[in-house]
């Protein structure tokens, strides 16, 4: 420890500091759809991407761009990847989030034993530390490459709160949800058949407040498993709804569904009246969350 | 065996707003131990395992016209469900605030409960106003026999030893917030306390460790100065070095017990001190109360907890 300190002190691949831990907790919780989940973290000079996957049918990614961090030192070659338990990672981060206070957390990888190290850096006399063991990540079974379905993308943007509510309402009819996009009249239909039928229509011209954007040049219809669809909105952070954000939904080749949310990781603002304008003025302080859902095999 | 007293306004305040809610978080069943001069709420003193908790009040901080007599040197003890006492006190307090001229009397009675032929002991709270009286009977255990009472007194005496070193812990509610997260990680917390004011708490499992460290806390009792060469070392290295030097000690306690000890902040103590008992026997928390409006210790109230040690640790 005492000799040749310079040589033994290896520079970590990444050392970053974040001001708003709660924002990060919110963003990661959004992709936490069950208790035991393994996540893969991928580090690069652009930031950190967290990936979770289930049954080869559902994948979620949280993009934490380097602009989100107040400090981001990246020293690795290539793109280091490691696996952690998402639950442990969120539980540990949660410990750093003090209600009503903004606290700076430092994240470092790797530690001496390939751990992720978390540390609060606000005060010298009181500090919180956490160490999470990492594992070598599995290679992801199938490729979630999202390719556009045709020359024009099939996509719409809906208020996140409305999307969440619609998906919750579709719970009772059954296990399979059909999503239909049609150009004339421009509308999106979510339809479930099972114990009963339920159909929810978003009409573009009728309610432009709800369906903010719409792009579709031919009718498309695909079915998705309800539990995967629900995972895309079930843990949506309350800040997304409070800030009245929209979620973008696209259908790619073969019916691959992409759902995108935006979560604000801005430092909590001092004056509440300006929360909205402030968070919109800091486009860098937004975490992007993407879900990919494979359609059900058509019979 | 007789006990009868009037609870003062201050007494109602202390019990209803502060102590009983805090004690209730620690456990359901408590011994109420009354002597000529003191009233004590004791938890788990006779069973040994689990968190032990003791709150003691001088009789005049809770009561006036205090009368007690028994063949056991005027000492009476029984066990009761604290939540019932709290509920009765809350209701009595709301009655007495409605009519200012009421007095809140508490006494021990034996009554014949409905559908029973055996008279049962009760602690009765009676609010008497000009026009009405409200009587609430709280069922209690049979008063402790002389040998049991002696056993309780002996347990109480042995639970009084104070750790050699006590550290003043800042902001209990914030620490509680952290410990609540620790509960998600593991069941056992390592608590390290040094004579130079370092306190660390850590939960570890094979996959994860989560902890907090406080440095330069005020020390009461035996203290040493932190060695200068340790200043820039990691928390773990410093505690290991401190333990090997003999000026630090570490014990393992249950996270649940630790959280319960922090919940005592509901009693609104002015200071809290943590220390490790002799030979690492237990983790002790002592709460200090000031005379309102001063920085002087209110000697009429004392409150402390002892957390059983799961493993004597490396200390």
UniProtKB/TrEMBL annotation, chain A:
Q: Does the UniProt entry include the keyword Nucleus?
A: yes
Q: Which domain of life is it from?
A: Eukaryota
**What cellular-component terms does GO give this entry?**
nucleus
Q: Which Gene3D superfamilies match?
A: 3.70.10.10
Q: Name one GO biological process term.
A: DNA repair
What Pfam families does this protein map onto? Answer: Rad1
What keywords sit in the KW lines? Answer: DNA damage, DNA repair, Nucleus
Annotated compartments: Nucleus
Extent of the signal sequence: none
Q: Which InterPro entries does this chain map to?
A: DNA_clamp_sf, Rad1_Rec1_Rad17
Stated family: Belongs to the rad1 family.
Protein's UniProt name = Uncharacterized protein
- Source organism per UniProt: Flemingia macrophylla
Which taxonomic lineage does the organism of this UniProt entry have?
Answer: Eukaryota, Viridiplantae, Streptophyta, Embryophyta, Tracheophyta
From TrEMBL, chain B:
Which GO annotations describe the biological process of this protein?
A: DNA damage checkpoint signaling; DNA metabolic process
Key words of the record: Nucleus
Region annotation Disordered: residue ranges?
225-247
Give the record's GO CC terms.
nucleus
Main location per UniProt? Answer: nucleus
Work out whether the entry's keyword set contains Nucleus: yes
Where found? Answer: Nucleus
Top-level division of the source organism's lineage = Eukaryota
Q: Which Pfam families match?
A: Hus1
Family membership, please give it: Belongs to the HUS1 family.
Q: What is this protein called?
A: Checkpoint protein
Q: Which species expresses this protein natively? A: Flemingia macrophylla
């Amino acid at each position: 420890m005492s000799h040749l300190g310079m040589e033994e002190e290896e520079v970590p691949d990444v050392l970053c500091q974040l001001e708003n831990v709660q924002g990060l907790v919110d963003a990661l919780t959004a992709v936490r759809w069950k208790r035991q989940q393994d996540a893969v973290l991928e580090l690069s000079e652009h930031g950190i991407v967290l990936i979770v996957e289930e049954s080869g049918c559902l994948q979620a990614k949280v993009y934490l761009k380097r602009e989100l961090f107040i400090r981001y030192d990246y020293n690795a070659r290539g793109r280091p990847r490691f696996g952690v338990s998402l639950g442990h990672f969120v539980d540990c981060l949660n410990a750093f989030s003090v209600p009503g206070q903004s606290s700076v957390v430092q994240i470092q990888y790797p530690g001496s034993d390939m751990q992720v190290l978390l540390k609060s850096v606000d005060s010298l006399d009181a500090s919180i530390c956490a160490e999470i063991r990492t594992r070598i990540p599995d290679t992801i079974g199938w490729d979630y490459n999202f390719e556009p379905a045709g020359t024009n993308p099939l996509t719409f943007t809906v208020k996140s709160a409305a999307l969440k509510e619609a998906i919750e309402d579709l719970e009772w009819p059954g296990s399979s949800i059909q999503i239909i996009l049609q150009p004339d009249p421009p509308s999106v239909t979510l339809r479930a058949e099972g114990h009963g039928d339920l159909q929810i229509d978003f009409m573009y011209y009728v309610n432009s407040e709800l369906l903010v954007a719409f792009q579709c040049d031919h009718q498309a219809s695909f079915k998705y498993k309800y539990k995967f669809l629900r995972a895309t909105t079930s843990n949506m952070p309350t800040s997304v709804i409070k800030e009245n954000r929209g979620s973008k939904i696209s259908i790619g080749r073969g019916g691959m569904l992409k759902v995108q949310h935006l979560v604000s990781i801005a430092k909590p603002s001092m004056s509440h009246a300006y929360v909205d304008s402030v968070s919109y003025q800091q486009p860098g302080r937004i975490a992007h969350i993407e879900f990919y859902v494979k359609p059900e095999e058509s019979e | 065996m007789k006990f009868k007293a009037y609870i003062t306004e201050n007494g109602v305040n202390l019990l209803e707003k502060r102590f009983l809610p805090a004690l209730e978080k620690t456990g359901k069943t408590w011994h109420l131990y009354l002597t000529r001069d003191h009233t004590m709420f004791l938890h788990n003193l006779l069973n040994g395992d689990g968190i032990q908790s003791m709150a003691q009040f001088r009789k005049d901080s809770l009561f006036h016209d205090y009368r007690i007599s028994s063949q056991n040197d005027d000492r009476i003890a029984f066990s009761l469900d604290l939540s019932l006492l709290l509920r009765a006190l809350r209701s009595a307090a709301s009655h007495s605030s409605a009519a200012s001229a009421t007095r809140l009397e508490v006494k021990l009675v034996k009554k014949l409960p409905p559908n029973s032929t055996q008279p049962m002991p009760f602690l009765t709270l009676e609010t008497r106003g000009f026009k009405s009286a409200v009587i609430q009977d709280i069922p209690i255990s049979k008063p402790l026999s002389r040998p049991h009472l002696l056993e309780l007194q002996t347990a109480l005496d042995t639970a009084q030893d104070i750790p050699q070193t006590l550290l003043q812990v800042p902001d209990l509610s914030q620490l509680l917030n952290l410990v609540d997260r620790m509960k998600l990680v593991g069941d056992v917390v390592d608590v390290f306390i040094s004579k130079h004011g370092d306190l660390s708490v850590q939960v570890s499992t094979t996959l994860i460790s989560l902890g907090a460290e406080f440095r330069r806390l005020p020390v009461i009792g035996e203290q040493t100065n932190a060695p200068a060469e340790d200043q820039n070392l990691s928390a773990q290295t410093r505690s290991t070095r401190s333990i090997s030097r003999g000026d630090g000690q570490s014990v393992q306690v249950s996270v649940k017990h630790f959280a319960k000890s922090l919940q005592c902040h509901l009693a609104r103590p002015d200071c809290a001190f943590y220390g490790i008992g002799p030979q690492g026997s237990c983790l002790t928390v002592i709460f200090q109360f000031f005379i309102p409006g001063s920085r002087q210790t209110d000697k009429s109230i004392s409150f402390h907890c002892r957390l059983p040690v799961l493993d004597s640790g490396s200390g």
